[in-house]
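ingest -> validate -> predict -> emit
validate: passed (alphabet ok, no gaps, 314 aa)
predict: started
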Amino acid sequence: MLADELQGAPLKRARQDIQQLDPNEYAKNWSNLLDTSSHGHAVRSITRLPLDRPIEEYLEVLRADGCLIIQNAITKDKVVAFKRDHDRILQFLKPTMEQLERGEEGNSQEATDNFFYQGAASVRGLRVQRMARGRFQLKSVDHRDGGALVKEKSAENTCLADLTNDLILPEIVKQILEHAMPMSWRMNTCGTLPALPGAEAGSWHRDINLMFGDEALDLSLPDFYFNLLVPLEPVSPESGTEMLLGSHKLLQKEVAHCPRGVVHGEPGDVFIFNGKIVHRGRPNQAQTATMRSLLFVVFSARWFEQGREKDDSD
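emit:
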């Protein structure tokens, strides 16, 4: 055997040993485990802390629960301005979203290749992904990755990408990330999550999903991925994001007993959570349900990349 073959053999065997789980099958297992679980669903409030608490208080909650709500972290007027322009873009996208709901438009192969999406389309550089009935993901809405639609000026002489700048990284979130991630980090992705009235629940998942075919290995890594949610409308416990508290430290087979908490808050509040925590969007189906939209921002280690999507718009 050649010298380079001898050197490569242990690495090849190691890769074969850890690549045992398929990422899509792993993702599907969450629903099988949690939606049909015979365990009682213990409920506990997600910790809410006011702005200007000592940084260690925020970090202690994040380490224990994997998530945290910070009240009044952003000036409400800035959120209202973003929502106004976001509503304008949603109105423009309405025909595309309706076609995706009917399965008449979009890349159906994307639903086959990725468990989380049920079709997608690009409109002037904005990726519109259907995640479940009535649930969508729009990205990107920032200047770095956003396309023409989010950069064009409205009649009020504003553009969504400009307004995003005021929401992406509140100072308190920056301080938390500097302490929580022991490596160089960056903004990875920025988009929004509209849930229409009548939207069904999203799928249970971890944002990091399965990276190396070995869940224990993924969880053993230093925390390298955090997500920020900024509500554009009031979010109620009935329609907010549901978290399995403490699941960022547990294997899939161990999380069924985790207490469940639901994000709720007002525009100006922010919600930060570890990318390893198991969560889903709750259905938006109350009798008085209205549009529920969130801005999301992913922060990750510089080495982590989920991939850039090709703009296939006209």
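The longest strand covers residues 185-195.
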